[in-house]
Amino acid sequence: MNNRIRVLRAERGWSQAELADRVEVSRNSINAVENGKFDPSLPLAFRIADAFGMLVEEVFLKDQ
Amino acid sequence: MRKKSSPLDTALVLFIPMAIVLMLTALWWTQDLSPHLHTAILLGSFLAVMAASLWAEVRRELRQDEIQIAATRFGHRWSSGSVGLLVVASLLPPFQELIFDMARSFESGGSTRPHPAVSMFMFGAATAALLQLLTASLLRAAWLRAKARP
Predict the structure, then answer these.
(1) Are the C-beta atoms of B137 and B75 separated by less than 8 Å?
(2) Domain range for residue B145?
(3) Nearest by CB to B67, which of A26, A43, A47?
């Protein structure tokens, strides 16, 4: 699953740690999700999307 | 969702090593008492340490987020192989000779020591448990590092 987390973070000037605090997970989790090495659960995907104020499908994109 | 550790978690983490030290001290001071009392103290303190360890472990797992849980599951799933390796190793002649030598060293104790077979069984069980825990921990760390490396 692809995602736009890195771009969205950069637009807001957030570090991985800052996003991790906002969605209440470890920085490792954000790192793994951002790099596409770990697919988040649906609740975590929604929390990440909420942190950016976006819909989940605007943050996470299915593989082509 | 990740939860912060509470003062109870800190207390549990501090309690376990303190309880082990207290257990060893109590065993030392009560070794001249009756064997039943000595065994009761050993069993009671061992159960207290085990219960505190399990409680701390359960609380630690509840604080984990999903990638940490996935890493722990990965470690537990594959660490059972290390115990299987120990069983296979015990069938090989060099390891059998090692076990035989260890059994002889257990026999050299005084009459107050447990039966050599009991000592060997306890040693084997403890080694298998420790090996599995160590392997699970190493696999967990390796999996987490592989997934979360920048």
Answers:
(1) yes
(2) 65-150
(3) A26
Domain termination site, one of B47, B63, B79: B63
Partner-chain contact A25 B66, CB within 8 Å = yes
Closest CA in chain B for residue A36: B147
3-state secondary structure of A60: strand
**Which residue in A has a C-alpha nearest to residue B150's C-alpha?**
A31
The arithmetic mean of pLDDT across residues B46-51, rounded, is 84
Tell whether the model's pLDDT for residue B119 goes beyond 70. Answer: yes
Residue B34 DSSP class: -
Shared domain check, B100 and B44: no
Whole-angstrom distance, CA of residue B114 vs CA of residue B135:
30
Give residue B111's pLDDT.
57
Q: Does B68 touch chain A (CB under 8 A)?
A: yes
Chosen from B3, B67, B68 to mutate, greatest number of chain A CBs within 10 A: B67
Q: Which of B65, B147, B69, B64 is nearest to A31 (CA)?
A: B147
- What's the domain count of chain B? 2
List all residues 6 or more positions away from B114 whose beta carbon is below 8 Å from its beta carbon.
Answer: B122
The verdict on B146 touching A (C-beta cutoff 8 Å) is yes
Architecture in CATH of A2-56: Orthogonal Bundle (1.10)
Instruction: Kindly state whether residues B85 and B129 are assigned to the same domain.
Output: yes
